[in-house]
Each structure stands twice: as structure tokens, then as C-alpha cells.
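Hi R.,

Here's the chain you asked about this morning:
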Amino acid sequence: MSDFLLENVWVLEPGEGIVGRALRVRGDRVAEIMADTGDDVNAAAIDGGGRLVTPGLVDIHTHGIGHHAYERSPEDLLRGTQQLGQYGTTCVLPTLYRVLDEDHLSDLAALTEAIRRVDTASVPGFHFEGPFLARPGAGAVTVPGDVRLLEQLYDAVDEHVVAVSISPDTRDILPVIHWLVEHGVVPFITHTQADVEQTQRALDAGARHATHFYDVFYPPEETDPGVRAVGTVEAILADPRCSVDFICDGVHVHPTAVRAVLAAKGWEKLVLITDSNVGAGLPDGVHESPWGYPIKTQEGRGARIHDPAHPNHGALAGSSLTMDRAVTNALAWLDLPAEQVWAMATRNPARLLGLGNKGTLRPGADADLVLWDEIGDRYRAVRTWVGGRCVFQQK
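And here is the predicted structure, written out as C-alpha cells:
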């Protein structure tokens, strides 16, 4: 059982600010936040060196990291999640999109067994990016809404699915959204060219979040020359019930677009994600992927298909972003108090998913926390704890 005092730190509560100078952990929970350390003989003391400590980062849309794609195999999922602590990520939804069919039910069952064995991060379940999508993006499956198939997928992962991405313009999608809401699964909107009416019906049915907003969100066809077509993006911006997330790498979304959504929705409705894939966290270069083509990562260019024979050579294939870099970028782009930006990677995604003990350092919360160094223009994890257990320590 963990029992330690983290002292000489700046304890940041997301959305609020600095709330103390020391933090005590007992077992797998935060026990106490203190204005100073005082005299404590019941816990081993760790000197934080005057650094910032925050809740662990929560990534709700990620396909892989390093050389590992989560859906490729149970081994990849386990090895990939072992790397997350160095980027300050403590809670993750492995995102699946090419195994969401009847031919891969046994593979889904094997991946589910793997997430039960993960001990270096918290994995509440999967995020299914599809299969009920209207536009394929970087290879996602596009099929009509089918509750029977959804039930098969749900059973294959033994109900370990937290979020499912759908498109409002997918045929027969409303029964799917209703089913998800009834089973406590959060419907995300994405991969769409829906009009306002289709989007509004999806929101009324229970969709409350849009993932990798702006990316693969196409406007409807312009039918009246000179009159801008209005569709999903505008419907989501106008609906106060709906939150959004961004790939804050400066490639997928321009910072001005993020600032525009912030002005429309406020910081509590914004979430940071990576949509990371093979190559995330690696040096610039060409890396093999499980999809039959290599991926090239390059600073300022993201992750792209790198195969001249491929019809989509040069197209984006997820991102090479890590959550620590997403926070660093958002801090630079947005004129907000730092605690509100940190909330976008901690409190906000945890609340979206109903994970009340994540994304906070209040007493009783899960002891998922990160001690940060601020080096130049970015933050780097010095130590990361999951459930009170240290899973990463900078060498």
C-alpha cells in the first residue's frame, strides 16, 4: 500500500488554481492537501523541488503510441500503455476502428483481456471510432446503423466500452444513439457531412460530444452560390449541451479555430486529445504500421501515410502528438488561466465520461498524479503515479 507525502510542490486543482504546497497519498487515494508540510512522521516524504503537481492526464481518443498500435494485438496494447506515464497520461481509452465487425469478435475479446492486465495506467474501457460513420477519414469503417452489430461488439468486449463515435448522417443512426445512451455509453459525433437537422436529431437523441472537432467535419454541399452551407460544425457550436475535443498539434487544427470554439463554448466544454498513432513520441522518421503502409512523423507535419503507391500518400494518419505536448500547446495558444487549460486534459474529459475520481486532486480522488518540470516552452513529467503507485520516474 502506498503511503507518502509529496512536499515542496505547487498543488494545482484543475479549474481552480493552486490549492496547497503538499499532498498526502494513502493507499490508492489522495488523502489530504496541505498548505505546508508541517510535521508528518506517518508517511515517507518526497521532495518535489518546488515543481507543479497536477492530476494525471486523461486521453479519450488515442490509437497508439511509439511503435505500438493498440488494436494490433494484446501485446501492443500492454506495451503501449506502459509508455504513457512518461507523457503524464494516467487514464486512457484505447481507440479501435479497424476491428469493429463480426470477423474480429475474438480479437476484441483478447484485447479486453489485455486491458484487465494493464497496471501502468487506468483503462476504464475502449473508445470505438465507428463503425457507424459516414466518412472514412484515415481508413475508418463506414456502415449503416445496426443495433444487432453494436450488441455483438459490446458483448465481445464484455461491456468494456466507454464511448462510441458516430456520424449524424449515417443511415439508421438514431436507434444506435438511443441504445448507447440506455447502456451508459457516451456517443461522440465525428466523420460527418451532416446538415443542421441531422445533427440536431443526433444531439436530441443523446449525443453530447464531438471528437477531433473540425477534422473530418465537412460542410454540406453549397446549393445556393455565395450562400455558405451550414452543417454539423455550426449546429454543435450553437448547442450548449455539446462539448468538443481537439488534436492540439497545430497541424490538424489551427489555433484560431480552437480560440473560436473557446469563445463560443467556454473552457469547461473543451477537451484535449491526441488521436495518436504509431510514431507518437518517437523522433522524426518513417515507422512501420499495422495497416500495410509506413507512417512518416515530422515536427510540424504530424503523422502521414508514407507510401508513393498508396492512393492517399501524404495524407494525415492520426497524429504523433502526446498529451504533455497538447497541454503545452494549449497553454501557449489560449489566453486563459493555466488551471483552466489543465482542466481540458484532466477534469473535463473525466467529467464527460462520468469518472468522478479522475481529473482532480481533491481528497478521496484516485491518486493519479504527475510531478512536472517546466523546460523551455514545454512541460515534461518527472514522476507519474497511478493509483498511488509510481509508474514512471525520470532518470
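One quick note: The mean pLDDT is 94.

Cheers,
M.
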